[in-house]
Amino acid sequence: MLEVRELSTSYGAVRALQEVTFTAPRGEVTAVLGANGAGKTTLLRTITGLVRAQSGSASYDGRELTRTAPELMPGLGIAHVPEGRGVITELTVEENLRLGGLGRGGRVRPEELERIYELFPALADRRAALAHVLSGGERQMLVLGRALMAEPTVLLLDEPSLGLAPRIVAQLFELLQSLVVEQGLTVLLVEQNARSALSIAHRGVVLSLGRVVVDERADVLAGDDQLRHAYLGF
Amino acid sequence: MQQLVNTLLGGLTLGMVYAAFALALVLIWRSTRIVNFAQAPMAMVTTFVALRIIEGGHSYWLGFAAALVAGLVLGAVVERVLIRPVEGKAEINAVILTLGLFIVLHALAAVVFGNRYRSFPAAFGIRGIEVGDTTIALTGFGIFTIVAVLVVMGLLVLLFRFTDLGLRMRAAAFNQEVARLLGVRVGRMLTLGWALASLVGSLAGLLIAGGSLVHPGYMDAVVVYGFVAAVLGGLDSPAGAVVGGLLLGLSLSLVSGYVGSQLVALAALAILMAVLLLRPQGLFSQARERRV
Amino acid sequence: MRRLLGQPLVLALLGAVVIIVVLTGVDDFRAVQLTQMAYLGIAAGGLTVLTGLNGQISLGHGALMAIGAYTTALLLQDDEPTLPLLAVLVVATVVTLVVGAAIGVAAARLHGPYLAGATLALAVAVPGIALYFGDTLGGEQGLRVRVPDPPGWLLDAAYFVTGQDLTPSTYVAFLGWFVLVVTYVGLAHLSRGRVGRRWRAVRDDEVAAEVAGIALGRARVSAFVVSAAAAGAAGFVMAVSVRLAAPSGYSLTLSLMLLTAVVLGGLGTLSGALVGAALLTFLPQVITDAGVSAGLDDIRAAELAPLVYGLVLVAVVLLAPAGLVGSLRLAWHRLRATTTSKGAT
Ligand SMILES: Nc1ncnc2c1ncn2[C@@H]1O[C@H](COP(=O)(O)OP(=O)(O)OP(=O)(O)O)[C@@H](O)[C@H]1O
Ligand SMILES: [Mg+2]
């Protein structure tokens, strides 16, 4: 269980997170929604320690995360896929994947790579290509595959649907859902695309100006016209 | 004809050294976006370490090895103590910092080792090899120079291409934040990168010193040539640095042989400006436009 | 009163009085030192405009000084001068300015480390030219500079004002400080005016400057040209003072010294550049003496001064990015702010 307690942080005078509190239960998808600039990216970055938390905490199974160095996250089973995808374009597809596997410590076995290639056959054909040449959808598969290489238990995804065609988004979310079911992953899914996100999420947390304004079951949130209009715009 | 062959052979040997030096600059640039102008005096200091050991009656190879180790350590210390605080800050900070270090090492060497010219031994003959009844300008030490640089480059390729450590180092160089999230200890990788670069720089220093004279400023022009070679190759590409080094070595050798050795630095400046203004991304890179 | 004191011209007049008083009282040795301070100060002032106001770095200003110095030397070869000294100054400045314009056009397209590397190459390359054209430029030995005697009216005037005869060294010192004052007044005017605003705008934010209609290239080139002209004038003073233009005087070391002066002075103020020049002129003797009394031989002790500069350069970047003068000024402002706020309550 990922627990965020009264987490606050700011960039100079901008208070990006103000006492954010919610929990993401194990084996569930929790969607984090909100307008541009609501603080969603900041939330993920503060959890993994890329941004310093001013007060409050985020913990996973009792282990405090915000004061742990980001380098240690893979070792704790936490994979953070940053906004804008974060493929390392100067490395090949396979090198990106191997890098993901190294994060857990120890060597990368060929079977582990094959498992990812089975999941994303498009990557298998391009394994020796520089990630630079991949399309947006392929890059998204690559970063997801790379995150899975570390065999995480928690997946923090920052706008995975950004810039993808609706069909690809649907495939991606389907895959995500099956991973959650099969591997019991805990997912924190930051999305602009609220409708798609809520379709696979168990809970929805809506941020506005750095505060949690809604924390509801996903189906309730998606079904409540008033909430939807007020915060999600669909 | 013979003169041309000899000039080109001399250029090849020199080019290998410039290539090594350029490679050192590229390794650092790639990971920290800093041009280490202090690379030259760092190499100079380690060469003096070797000279001390050799003059103390020990073997050339002990001095050689000690200089390389000294280079490794010096690179790591410089990164940790001096460079870390300015990483990611305005470019001018790092430029001034490395120049400050340049001055410090220069003066320190002059205080500790003295300011005169001293001869540095070579491991192999420095007379030209005789083919039939003509002597060509390839010396035993020249061959050693070429082989040594090739070996070091080969080892670096092995490290970067085929080991997990090399993969981590490249990841840290290309994208620090993503690398951190994937569990790479970026700080350690940068330190290691500086250490390796400094080792390669030390090798270049030893090879230039071999069979010739050293003093605190003997590497100063080489940092310019190394920089030009690195820019020729695009500053980001190790392979480009090597090709750039060879090209520059040959060109400068031709200038020195046919125009005048005094104009070598000017020729390097002209080549640098031509590249920066006409093909800023370097001769060999297909990469997108680069801001220089 | 404070407004009045802030005017460059008024400051210059005050400065001139101070200079006359100081230079009148000193012996030849000090006069030579003060001349050195003047030429370092002139070049550092130019460099400060370039680096501090426009954000371009140059490691090649020593080479630009060489161009001014060699021009001066070529014009002052004969026993009977063909041109009056001030005309030589003008020619040396203009020649360096033209060369600087050519370099500036190329440099305007470079930034940060690339510009540093290119100007470093310039610093290393230029002395070689003097060696290559040894017949005209004197090779390793360099060219002797024959400084014409001061004109009679000046001797009379000097005697009238100071009550002493003008020695050749004091004459050159006056000349150097005259050039310094003129240069600084010019630089101050430029940097306070429209041109200076453009330079700063380009330094602070290229995109914003471009949006505001400032031609980036032109602003950069003009900064380089102005700064090169100052270096040329400094080269003139140096040649006249040393009475020699030789490659060894214009090595990379000189370029790095100038950069040191500018950084010590806090990148961007003329007063800082002058303080930096003073430190570079007067500190070495103190440090060397300390070294000798600590048991080092003379040659090694002489290297202690650059060691200290280098360390200070490193320390300034790490600890006081505003430079020595800048940091002192900040501290002074803070002090004043607290005392005035106390006074108000
Ligand atoms: N590095 C930074 N420095 C200063 N302010 C920042 C920084 N990063 C984010 N902010 C500010 O913090 C607030 C939250 O930003 P954040 O990126 O977390 O929003 P977001 O919800 O992810 O938005 P989007 O949907 O556009 O990605 C915004 O007001 C933003 O301008
Ligand atoms: Mg975001």
How do the helices and strands follow one another from N- to C-terminus of chain C?
HHHHHHHEHHHHHEHHHHH
When the domains of chain B are counted, the total is: 1
Rg of chain C, alpha carbons: 21 Å
Sequence of secondary-structure elements of chain B: HHHHEEEHHHHEHHH
Oligomeric grouping of the chains:
heterotrimer
> Class by helix and strand content of chain C?
mainly alpha
Query: What spatial order of strands do you see in the largest sheet of chain C?
Result: 1-2
Distance between the termini of chain B: 40 Å
Can you count the helices of chain B?
11
Biggest sheet of chain B, in brief? 2 strands, antiparallel
Contiguous uncertain segments of 5+ residues of chain B: none
SSE blueprint and pairings:
The complex is a heterotrimer of chains A (234), B (292) and C (345).
Chain A: E1 2-11, E2 14-24, E3 29-33, H1 40-47, E4 55-60, E5 63-64, E6 78-81, H2 93-102, H3 110-119, H4 121-125, H5 136-149, E7 154-158, H6 166-183, E8 186-190, H7 194-200, E9 203-208, E10 211-217, H8 218-223, H9 225-232
Parallel strand pairs in A: 3-8, 3-9, 6-7, 7-8
Antiparallel strand pairs in A: 1-2, 1-4, 4-5, 9-10
Helix pairs in contact in A: 2-5, 3-5
Chain B: H1 2-32, H2 39-55, H3 60-83, H4 91-113, E1 118-119, E2 128-131, E3 134-139, H5 140-162, H6 164-174, H7 176-181, H8 186-209, E4 213-214, H9 220-232, H10 238-258, H11 264-278
Antiparallel strand pairs in B: 1-4, 2-3
Chain C: H1 2-6, H2 8-25, H3 28-53, H4 61-75, H5 85-107, H6 112-132, H7 134-137, E1 143-144, H8 152-162, H9 168-192, H10 194-204, H11 206-211, H12 216-242, E2 244-245, H13 252-264, H14 270-293, H15 298-302, H16 304-319, H17 323-344
Antiparallel strand pairs in C: 1-2
